[in-house]
Design brief:
264 residues; elongated; Nod_factor_ABC_transporter
C-alpha cells in the first residue's frame, strides 16, 4: 500500500513538472492569470468604491478583497478545464495512460500544478490588497484559516474542471462553460453585501458556495460584510467547508469514472 502511494505521488509529481515546464515556456499566459484578478480588484474598487456605503467609514476594499480572493478560486476553473480538454483532444492523456505509471498520476499531477498556481495567485492578490489598503484585523491563525477555506474551495472546483475537461468533445466547447462561470461568480456576495440586493436575489446569492466562502473569509479576516441575516449566512464557516466537500464527493467519483472510460 505504501509503495503504491509513493509510486502514485512520484508519477503525479512528474506530470505536474511537465505542466510547470510548460508554464516556464509560456510565462505570459501564467502571469496574466495571476494578475487578472488584480485588474478586477482595481477596476471594481474604482468603479464601485465611491458609491458603496461602508460601516464606520471603512474602505470598500475591506469588503472587496476577500470577494476577489474567492472569485480567483472560481476563475482558476477555466484554466483547469482548458488544460485537461487540450490534453485529451491531442491524445496526451491516452499516451500517459498507456505508460507503466500509476493510473492516478495524470489527474494527481493536474491537481498539484493547479493548486500551486492558486497559492501563487493568492500571494499576488494579498500583496495587491495590502497595497490598496486592505487589512485583516483578526489573528494570524484566523487569516491562515481563511486562506485554507479559499484553497479548499479551489480544490473542490478543480474536480469540476477535471470532469468537464474530460467530458467535452473539443477545446472549443469549453467556451460555453466559461461563459457560465461568470454568472456563478457575480451572483454572490463577492462585490456587495447580499442585504443590498432584492430579497429573492439575495437569498439565491447567499446559497451560492462562493458567498459562503467569501463570508467566512471576511469573518476570519474581521472585515465588513461577514454578517448576513439568514441561516446560511449565519453558518457561513460551516457552509464554506460543507459545500466544497459536497462538490468533491460528487465530482471526484465522476472524474474517476470518466477517466477510466476515456476513449471507450
Amino acid at each position: 500500500m505504501t509503495s503504491s502511494l509513493g509510486w502514485a505521488l512520484a508519477d503525479g509529481w512528474t506530470v505536474a513538472r511537465r505542466t510547470l515546464i510548460h508554464w516556464r515556456m509560456q510565462p505570459g499566459i501564467v502571469i496574466f492569470g495571476w494578475f487578472f484578478p488584480v485588474l478586477m480588484m482595481l477596476m471594481f474598487g474604482a468603479l464601485l468604491g465611491g458609491a458603496m456605503e461602508m460601516p464606520d467609514g471603512q474602505s470598500y476594499y475591506e469588503l472587496l478583497v476577500p470577494g476577489i480572493f474567492t472569485l480567483a478560486m472560481l476563475f482558476g476553473l477555466e484554466g483547469t478545464m482548458t488544460a485537461v480538454a487540450t490534453d485529451v483532444s491531442k491524445g496526451v492523456t491516452d499516451r500517459f495512460r498507456s505508460l507503466p505509471m500509476s493510473s492516478a498520476a495524470v489527474v494527481l499531477g493536474r491537481c498539484i500544478a493547479d493548486m500551486l498556481d492558486s497559492v501563487v495567485t493568492l500571494i499576488v492578490l494579498i500583496a495587491a490588497g495590502l497595497a490598496l489598503g486592505w487589512r485583516w484585523h483578526g489573528t494570524l491563525p484566523e487569516a491562515l484559516a481563511a486562506f485554507g477555506l479559499l484553497l479548499l474551495l479551489r480544490f473542490a472546483l478543480l474536480w469540476v474542471g477535471i470532469f468537464i475537461g474530460l467530458s467535452v468533445k473539443n477545446v472549443q466547447s469549453i467556451t460555453v462553460v466559461q461563459v457560465l462561470v461568470w454568472p456563478v461568480g457575480f451572483l454572490s456576495s463577492a462585490f456587495v453585501m447580499t442585504s443590498t440586493m432584492p430579497s429573492w436575489l439575495g437569498a439565491i446569492a447567499q446559497w451560492n458556495p462562493m458567498s459562503s466562502t467569501a463570508t467566512a473569509a471576511r469573518s476570519l479576516f474581521d472585515n465588513p460584510g461577514a454578517v448576513a441575516g439568514s441561516w446560511i449566512g449565519g453558518h457561513a464557516g460551516a457552509a464554506a467547508v460543507i459545500w466544497p466537500l459536497l462538490i468533491v464527493a460528487v465530482f471526484l467519483p465522476l472524474s474517476a469514472r470518466r477517466f477510466r472510460n476515456l476513449s471507450r
